[in-house]
UniProtKB/TrEMBL annotation:
Residue intervals of the Peptidase M24 C-terminal domain: 544-604
Protein name, per record: Aminopeptidase P family protein
Species this chain originates from: Roseibium salinum
Residues in Creatinase N-terminal domain copies: 21-148
Domain of life: Bacteria
The keyword Metal-binding is annotated on this UniProt entry: yes
GO terms, molecular function: aminopeptidase activity
Amino acid sequence: MFQNFDDLSDPSCGAPHAALLRAELSRRGLDGFLVPRADAHQGEYVPPHDCRLQWLTGFTGSAGMAAVLGDSAAIFVDGRYTIQVREQVDMDVFPAQHLINEPVTDWLAARLKPGQKLGIDAMLHTVRDVRRLKKVCEDAGAELVTLDDNPIDSVWQDRPAPPVGQVSLYAVELAGRSAREKIAEIQSTLADKKADACVLTQPDSIAWLFNIRGSDVSHTPLPLSFATVPADGKPSLYIDGRKLSNSVRDALAELTDLAEPDDFKQGLTTLGKAGSRVMIDPALAGVGIADAITGSGGTLMEAQDPVLLPKAIKNETELKGARAAHLRDAAAFVGFLYWFDQEAVKGDLDEIGAAEKLEEFRRATGDLKDISFDTISGAGPNGAICHYRVSRTSNRKIPVGKPFLIDSGAQYEDGTTDITRTLAVGEMTAEMKRHYTLVLKGHIAISTARFPGGTTGAQLDTLARIELWKAGLDFDHGTGHGVGAYLSVHEGPQRIAKTGTVPLKPGMILSNEPGYYPAGEYGIRLENLEIVTQARDIPGGERPMLGFETITLVPMDLRLVDVPLLTLDERNWLNGYHETVREEIGPLVGARERIWLEHATKAI
């Protein structure tokens, strides 16, 4: 199994680990310390070696921060984790705060005293975040102290070793462009912006640029590393040499100068001593990177990671691969749905059993490299936890009479998938059908949207919520995230969310996943992946429009649809979608599954 179901959280660790950290802070003359979920790459995917927030508090979510002062502490999470954090963390030691509504800066402002010293690990906090933290400290008469090492590492006795996953070359037949072409494009961007070099901290940016993939973190083929790219000449790639076979090393050596991660700071210092104008992304680069450059005489140019946008706009080869991966994945998922319909109503199936079976169907394709994230298999109240991770402790039987939510994805060499379906198990109540249909209406609104160039995800986000808002309901996560090409299932800079400020462009892949989660009851989410495309001309229209091509082809559960709540256009969309699913996926599944699919996609 690519997924394990061990219980990784231990709320009882909070008190003793907080005591160990406070003792170490006292030894260093510090009055407090901040512990983010991030590692030095500021990515969502963190190896066990860098899971300091989990070690300290027990929290296993993908975003959050703990603040520890001498006489108080707290943990900060966003709306996705408000339920989970209370189950995983000792609230007496680390009371939970909302990361957005009650940010750590407000909490610190109310508690820091003049003369106190607040420590941070300089590689774990971005340039942008440190500016806010410095202001809070200055206003309180306190001092922000940036550290070159992390106090937690001094007291974490059984800390795992850093990962040394093997790196592989990603064939140009899958990437669509050679690494030399990509490097030349980034160097052209640097020259246009009059930058001498840029620093890349995101492993997926590095993987895309050099056409490599790695195995340092679970479910995402990332090679943890840093890189610098000059406007002219060879880039430098800072990566643990143990990850490179002789053939991979030889291929990379033709493109880039190879060095160990421990040499990264010296490389930055060399850039600084040369008086270089160095581009960094202030939202992604740790302040320690900036300090190394400016401290040695360099000049910072703050701009978005120049790889993010080219990586997000998939070329035709990548899009062809994504479509193929989604056809393969849909056939596997339909096989799972057929099986699920036979088993779930018996009342003996549990969350782990469903997740294991779905992975089994994907493995049967012969092409599965990994799942793209831990499957969210949520029965009853667990479905109401947006980013629930099933463990052997939390595992529930799937109840008859409630919807079941399953959010999952796969990593194939030609594409990354991500799909959520909410499934009826037995008879559904009128309220359940109403909630499902309101979510479906929001999903259809995104799928059918037409919008001019320059439109951002924030402008589209309301479309997914408006029917829920009319009913006094909402959901506490973004409507959609970007998706990589055999890379991260959560890719920026594009997103459909209140914070989605990047214009959507043809070739981008985004998820479309509105939801609704009545706490303690069940969860509903419907997710397809969409490619941004040039839309057909609209009769009488004056401007060219963009739209979406849906590449996820798995039926919605008609047993949960309250048909009278749908408009004629919405019914036509659903019937058309299901007709496409029948035509594309029917030939890829067995005879029994095909009969099931015919019924599951019948016109309404």
